[in-house]
Write a structure and sequence with these properties.
Number of helices: 1
Shape: elongated
Helix content: 10-25%
């Protein structure tokens, strides 16, 4: 019996490590759906990746399209935005619902930045994007799609565009904050216009 208990503990620890490694292999941000939660219950969102911390919100038991932007170091908790702040929900009750990753040109993105304020919906996998700012209003752009230039390590995607203006959006998978809230995003954005010497910077979320 004394030998069995340590063996079981070792197996449990190994299973946890395998689960964490599998989750870490998934690229973030990505869409998830809530699973395994009773219809009369909710999945809590906590301030930290720890069941003993305060609850700041919840996800419904049938909630879909939950954007997980990062994992906790142990892979057991996923970071999710709620209101104007970021929190953590347990990955045991979240199931990935998007195939591929945000770099494959199949997921629409919404990029935005502050000072100056701007936003750029990128409607992948179609060839259309829009750009809006306070000074110039809005205009449409044409993007490349399909086999967009990308790297895996680190995860970076380049989206050339033309139309009213020419340039490119360089999107990088990394932690990003909008500077206006406590929300956390999983993609940083840099917008380069042909002829301009200064680029725009900001964050992106999945659409």
């Amino acid at each position: 019996m004394r030998l069995i208990r340590p063996a079981l503990a070792a197996l449990a620890a190994l299973a946890m490590l395998v689960s964490a490694a599998t989750a870490a292999a998934d690229e973030f941000p990505a869409f998830y759906r809530v699973t395994g939660v009773a219809h009369d219950d909710v999945l809590n969102i906590r301030t930290e990746p720890d069941a003993g911390t305060a609850i700041i919100g919840f996800l419904r038991p049938d909630e879909r399209g939950v954007e997980i932007t990062a994992l906790s170091p142990d892979g057991r908790w996923g970071q999710v935005n709620y209101g104007e702040r970021a929190g953590w929900s347990h990955m045991r009750y979240l199931e990935r619902e998007m195939a591929g990753n945000w770099r494959d040109g199949q997921t629409a993105l919404y990029c935005f930045g502050n000072e100056p304020f701007w936003n750029m919906p990128i409607f992948l996998p179609t060839h259309r994007a829009e750009f809006h700012d306070i000074d110039g209003g809005g205009f449409e752009l044409v993007t490349d799609t399909g086999a967009l230039p990308a790297t895996r390590f680190p995860p970076v995607l380049a989206i050339p565009f033309s139309g009213t203006r020419e340039g490119a959006a360089i999107l990088r998978g990394e932690a990003c904050n909008d500077g206006m809230s406590d929300m956390q995003f999983g993609i940083s954005a840099f917008i380069y216009w042909r002829g301009d010497t200064e680029a725009l910077s900001g964050c992106c979320r999945l659409e």
